[in-house]
Amino acid sequence: MHNLTLYIDCFFNPSPYTTKPSFISSALIFMKLAMASLSYSFIVVTLFIIPFFGCGANAQLSPNFYARTCPSLPTIVRNAMSQAVTREARMGASILRLFFHDCFVNGCDASILLDDTATFTGEKNAFPNQNSVRGFEVIDTIKTRVEAACNATVSCADILALATRDGVVLLGGTSWTVALGRRDARTASQSDANNQLPSPFANLATLISSFAAKGLTASDLTVLSGGHTIGQSQCLLFKTRIYNETNIDPSFATTRKATCPASGGDTNLAPFDITPTRFDNNYYKALVARRGLLHSDQELFNSGSQDALVRTYSNNAAAFSRDFAAAMAKMSAISPLTGTNGEIRKNCRLVN
Ligand code: HEM
């Protein structure tokens, strides 16, 4: 498992982050709004400009994008996800993580789905992804069915966005409206994936800045990390926490050590919380009990700025589920390719 070791080494190094121009422009618009009085022009701006620019990068996305060109799309995706989650409940979690890792590297553009070839190095084998992200076959299956129904029409990026929402809902999460119209990248960047995906060994300040670089707030970080209410982690990624850290419930550390030995067992899996196939608020209850699995999980409740929100979600499952849905809609809109940019891939693994 040398790749996982490299992943850890990589994550101990600081990463550069970039700010997206789209978020700068929306910030400027908000500043102008703040300066405006309650005049006619303010109302015009509020009613007509905000819907187009106020949500940042999703300006050109629309829930009805395929209403005429591929009306069966939502049903095809939902049925396929239902089959996949019935076969293996963890798949809902795996697809959610796939989408997070897509969106965080140059936007939600399906770049993570591209296979490496002799002449192309993509994101699949970046340290945070290799032997770790999963669910590619499920996306392939959906794409095949969508192509059969609506040839060369629907992007892989939109399929992944819809599949993610359906997976979360199938495991008990609150639904959200998926705006559509993303196009697929013709490129991918392994180095951007290595540098921009957050590390499980990061501290709170670093996690906050990696989300800020994507236009997401500290609250977004805390609620989106609640994605860890479903799914599992490999032992190597939480080993140092259970053996060396002090901000951890001792009986929890003992339990985890049983399947994550000090030496070896690096790919053994452990659940993030006690209900890894239920989208509930047990993740936050675990954090309050100092039972966070990853170092980065416990950073959200370690006498810092996010303690209060973690406590709120630990006491209010409905608030978490509602806020998670809203934050997912926001994350889903990071820097999409639209219009004539990118392409509609025929095969999600290959550029046309
Ligand atoms: C805040 C920074 C985050 C860090 C450092 C982080 C790190 C990790 C790590 C190390 C794993 C285990 C990977 C493995 O065992 O191979 C994991 C799994 C997972 N992550 Fe995150 N994550 C973060 C945020 C998120 C977000 C924002 C989401 C979704 C909105 C998410 C969803 C998931 C899911 C669902 C899994 C389980 C996947 C499965 O079981 O296949 N994570 N994460």
From TrEMBL:
The family this protein is said to belong to: Belongs to the peroxidase family. Ascorbate peroxidase subfamily.
Lineage: Eukaryota, Viridiplantae, Streptophyta, Embryophyta, Tracheophyta
PANTHER family according to UniProt: PEROXIDASE (PTHR31388:SF5), PEROXIDASE 72-RELATED (PTHR31388)
PROSITE patterns the UniProt entry points to: PEROXIDASE_1, PEROXIDASE_2, PEROXIDASE_4
Taxonomy, superkingdom: Eukaryota
Enzyme class: oxidoreductase
Catalysed reaction equations from the record: 2 a phenolic donor + H2O2 = 2 a phenolic radical donor + 2 H2O
Positions with a binding annotation for Ca(2+) 1: 102, 105, 107, 109, 111, 123
Gene source species: Prunus persica (Peach)
InterPro entries, sorted: Haem_peroxidase (IPR002016), Haem_peroxidase_sf (IPR010255), Peroxidase_pln (IPR000823), Peroxidases_AS (IPR019794), Peroxidases_heam-ligand_BS (IPR019793), Secretory_peroxidase (IPR033905)
Compartments, record wording: Secreted
Site label Transition state stabilizer, positions: 97
Active site: 101 (proton acceptor)
Statement: the UniProt record of this protein carries the keyword Secreted: yes
Binding-site residues for heme b, renumbered to this chain: 228
CDD domains: secretory_peroxidase (cd00693)
Disulfide bonds: 70-150, 103-108, 156-348, 235-260
Name assigned to this protein: Peroxidase
An example molecular function term from Gene Ontology annotations: peroxidase activity
GO biological process terms held by the UniProt record: hydrogen peroxide catabolic process; response to oxidative stress
Main location: secreted
Biological role stated in the UniProt entry: Removal of H(2)O(2), oxidation of toxic reductants, biosynthesis and degradation of lignin, suberization, auxin catabolism, response to environmental stresses such as wounding, pathogen attack and oxidative stress. These functions might be dependent on each isozyme/isoform in each plant tissue.
Any one Gene Ontology cellular component term annotated for this protein: extracellular region
Cofactor(s) in the UniProt record: heme b; Ca(2+)
Entry binding sites for Ca(2+) 2: 229, 273, 275, 280
Keyword annotations of the record: Calcium, Disulfide bond, Glycoprotein, Heme, Hydrogen peroxide, Iron, Membrane, Metal-binding, Oxidoreductase, Peroxidase, Secreted, Transmembrane, Transmembrane helix
